[in-house]
Amino acid sequence: MKSVLHKAATRGHADHGWLNSHHTFSFAGYHDPERMHFGVLRVLNDDQVAPGRGFGTHPHDNMEIISIPLEGDLEHKDSMGNTTTIKEGDVQVMSAGTGIQHSEYNKNNDQEVKFLQIWIFPNQRNVEPRYDQISIRDIEKKNAFYQVLSPNPEDEGVWVHQDAWFHLGKFDAGASDSYQIKKEGNGVYAFILDGEVEIDGQKLEKRDGFGIWDTDSFNCKATTASRVLLMEVPMSLDTIGR
């Protein structure tokens, strides 16, 4: 097994007043040649948006964009005609493909929104843009990882144009679960949302990131009440659509 550890305090940081953002990988004004991506996982931003503020309309293309709210409500509008709200317990995906424009706003005037913004390189370019969101409240499990994203539209969770699988887990102290890699050549980037865990002996704390590859499986044990996001992605950039 090979691994890379990114402690929470080593992430890039930008405070724009209305937006307080931590970047696991190089993004905008934060550039570290050693922190460009983990396989096809290109962006992992931990964002806090001030009440009533947000990201104005802006374009994207040829990227799979996933948003996972952690606290509060985020209002979404896009050039495909979607107007909706995502909140804690939801997962949102956009396939930017040939090009989309969208905005994301904190619709509340009395509380922050905290959410993860995640970008994955797709395995197909110039696909028709697509939007979807789900509530995980009906599929979440206790003390076990459960799937929230896959490459298969018929499978559980949202889907993306890439051989990627995301799982969430909410664990009591002392609980554990194992994870089996879905596709040969993939790795997993674990991001600790809350609490403290050990993954195959590596101690991890809140907002730490831990990448694992060249292995078939691993075990995650919670040392305190914890929430963990697992992002399984291809490690080879040859899987990016050209």
UniProtKB/TrEMBL annotation:
This is Pirin family protein. PANTHER family: QUERCETIN 2,3-DIOXYGENASE. Residues 148-233 form the Quercetin 2,3-dioxygenase C-terminal cupin domain. Pfam families: Pirin, Pirin_C_2. Residues 11-120 form the Pirin N-terminal domain. InterPro entries: Pirin, Pirin_N_dom, Quercetinase_C, RmlC-like_jellyroll, RmlC_Cupin_sf. Belongs to the pirin family. It comes from the Bacteria.
